[in-house]
Amino acid sequence: MDGNAWVWLIVAVVVVAAVVLVILTTRRQSTKRVERAQELRREADEKAAVVQQREQQAAEVEANARAARAEADAKAAEAERLEMTAERQRSDVADQRSEVDERHRRADELDPRSGSDEPDPVDTTEQTTAGQTTAGQTTSGQTTSGQTTRTDEAR
Fold first, then answer.
1. For residue range 87-107, what is the model confidence (pLDDT) as tens digits?
2. How far is it between the farthest Cα atoms of the chain?
């Protein structure tokens, strides 16, 4: 072999070695990329399970919130219904009170003794505390709201 052939042989060996080196490096990088992709998929699967669990918890909390809202709405409707019932009852009682007062007035007009200062024995508009004695005086007719007070000297 002459010198030129040896040079070409050495160049060919170097080129083949470089090609083999490039192929091995590419395979190694490809293997590393595949391994990294598998690792990322595994991590994603683990996180997907956690995310799915959190989604279920969020759905449960949302369902609880809807149930609580529905319950609150139902209670508000019940409260409104009760308020309307109470208002209707107050109105009925006021009408009945007016009727009772009118009957008392008519009875006072018919009764000749109605001019006395005796308290109305059927007056239920004020609650009274009576019979308290202080230093020879008996108090009666004192309302719990403190509006009417009458003091009678002990006789």
1. 999 999 999 999 999 999 999
2. 162
Residue 150, classed as helix, strand or coil, is strand
DSSP assignments along 36-83, one per residue = HHHHHHHHHHHHHHHHHHHHHHHHHHHHHHHHHHHHHHHHHHHHHHHH
Considering only CA atoms, give the Rg of the chain.
Answer: 51
Encode pLDDT of 9-52 as tens digits.
999 999 999 999 999 999 999 999 999 999 999 999 999 999 99
| Cβ atoms < 10 Å from Cβ of 105 | 11
Q: For tokens 């609880």, what's the residue?
A: 64
- Residue 121 backbone dihedrals phi, psi, to 5 degrees: -70, -15
**Is 133 buried (19+), middle (13-18) or exposed (0-12) by CB count in 10 A?**
exposed
pTM of this prediction? Answer: 0.41
Partners of 139 in the β-ladder: 132, 151
C-alpha angle 107-109-115 in degrees, rounded to nearest 5: 100
